[in-house]
Design a protein that fits this description.
Blueprint (H helix, E strand, L loop, with lengths): L1 H25 L20 E6 L4 H17 L4 E6 L6 H12 L6 E5 L9 H4 L14 H7 E2 L2 E2 L1 E3 L3 E2 L3 E3 L1 H6 L8 H13 L3 E3 L8 H14 L1 H6 L10 H13 L12 H9 L3 E5 L3 H8 L6 E3 L7 E5 L1 E4 L7 H12 L1 H11 L20 H13 L1 E4 L9 H17 L2 H14 L5
Helix pairs in contact: 2-12, 2-14, 8-10, 8-16, 10-17, 16-17
């Protein structure tokens, strides 16, 4: 009986081992490395896509400073930095227009304050942000510039000056020269610098807007502030002899620029100044932030000849698109853009001054290279005649500004003053401003 029980137990044990063996064989082999779990997307309200053309140098550093302010307030929001390279937004604007028309807006996008907003058909693609402004801290001139069809559509983060003559003090001193204040002095100084084997004026025209930007300083130099403003309202004729003088002076200046200007962007041309090979450069004051980002602090600045007391102004701003995927996060972003904290973080690195009037000047000491310039710019902003930039969206509609740049690009190639002036006059007629 015992032998029988042992036999049964033995048989059951064998059967259980066989069954376990079959189950093990049937189980698929574990992979050596487990596949990654699919990423879990953050909730929509925890993302924020910011679209701009700030990709390098001081402008990118300034943008990241403002991101830091936002992230400190809203740490759970993932910021998506959607940038498209190209100076003055040349490429970004085309990409953005396609996205808006295709129903794929970012949460907020960069736009120059002023009439440039017309390009984006605000009543169709943007939300007004009228209730976000504190009129006690934004200058009236700026608020007037921002107003379009009875509403505010963009939040300004800064004020830039378009007309700045940057220079290398070391090279001027070595050649016993001083900063020119008139066009005649300017060209005499350039002649002496060229004779000394230097590049008198650094310039890059590769992106197609730089020549028009530089010419923007020659117009008020020849016309003065009031007549310059009149170009955009029809009060001043584009056939005025003083416009002719501005074109002729610009053409003379082109005789003293680096020969490779067509192959260089403005900042690439600026390398000639840092390398002590060129002396002057006419560019907006974002150049101060760029110089600082390159570790170069030995630069000087002055108004371009003939523009003393005239501040050609522009402002960078951000908008709120209709149907923004993350509207609440976007509204918070605009609040940061307009805040004292946000602007004090952004502007020292960008090389611009605050759009607000209550920023602490000490905030700009964090970037020693730009602090002296920005202090002087703020002082000029308070007392100079303010006139709008056309190249950077303040003076005219985007279509007019684009055609303006094209006329100047052709002028650089042809040197034909009469054709350029006729073309500029035709643009004013086409815009419905001039007869």
């Amino acid at each position: 009986m015992k032998k029988f029980r042992y036999s049964v137990i033995l048989v059951l044990l064998v059967l259980s081992l066989l069954l376990a063996s079959c189950q093990t064989a049937a189980k698929p082999e574990e992979p050596a490395t487990k596949p990654e779990e699919p990423a879990v997307e953050a909730p929509a309200d925890e993302k924020l896509e910011i679209f701009s053309w700030w990709t390098a140098g001081g402008e990118a550093e300034g943008l990241y400073k403002m991101f830091e302010v936002y992230s400190a307030m809203y740490p759970d929001v993932e910021i998506i930095n959607a940038t498209v390279a190209g100076g003055a937004g040349t490429n970004a604007k085309a990409v953005l227009a396609t996205r808006l028309q295709g129903g794929d807006p970012p949460d907020s996008f960069q736009v120059h304050a002023g009439l440039e907003v017309e390009k984006y058909e605000p009543t169709t693609y943007l939300e007004p942000i009228d209730d976000m402004f504190d009129p006690t801290v934004f200058p009236k001139d700026l608020l007037d510039l921002l107003l379009y069809e009875g509403h505010y559509w963009t939040m300004p983060v800064n004020i830039h000056r378009s007309n700045v003559l940057w220079y290398n003090p070391k090279l001027l001193e070595e050649n016993n020269l001083t900063v020119p204040t008139t066009m005649d002095e300017f060209f005499d100084t350039c002649e002496a610098l060229e004779a000394a084997g230097l590049i008198p004026i650094a310039m890059g025209t590769k992106d197609g807007w730089e020549a028009a930007h530089v010419f923007e300083s020659f117009l008020p130099s020849a016309l003065g502030a009031d007549a310059y403003r009149g170009l955009w309202t029809g009060a001043t004729s584009w056939n005025d002899p003083l416009v002719t003088k501005a074109l002729e002076d610009f053409l003379t200046m082109m005789e003293y620029v680096n020969e490779d200007h067509a192959a260089l962007t403005w900042d690439a041309a600026g390398e000639y100044i840092i390398a002590d090979q060129a002396v002057f450069m006419i560019m907006g004051d974002w150049a101060a932030g760029w110089f600082a980002s390159k570790g170069y602090g030995d630069f000087g600045w002055a108004p371009p000849p003939g523009t003393q007391g005239i501040f050609v102004g522009l402002s960078d701003a951000f908008s709120l698109p209709k149907n923004a995927p993350n509207e609440e996060a976007a509204i918070r972003w605009l609040e940061v853009c307009g805040s004292k904290e946000g602007q004090e973080a952004f502007n020292p690195a960008k090389g611009s001054i605050c759009a607000r009037t209550d920023c602490n000047p000490d905030a700009f000491k964090v970037v020693p290279e730009t602090y002296p310039y920005l202090t002087s710019a703020a002082e000029d902003w308070a007392v100079d005649a303010i006139v709008p930039s056309v190249v950077h969206g303040a003076a005219a509609f985007e279509s007019w500004a684009t055609d303006f740049k094209d006329v100047l690009t052709l002028f650089v190639a042809s040197g034909d003053v009469a054709t350029a002036q006729s073309g500029l006059a035709g643009l004013c007629v086409a815009a419905g401003i001039c007869k």
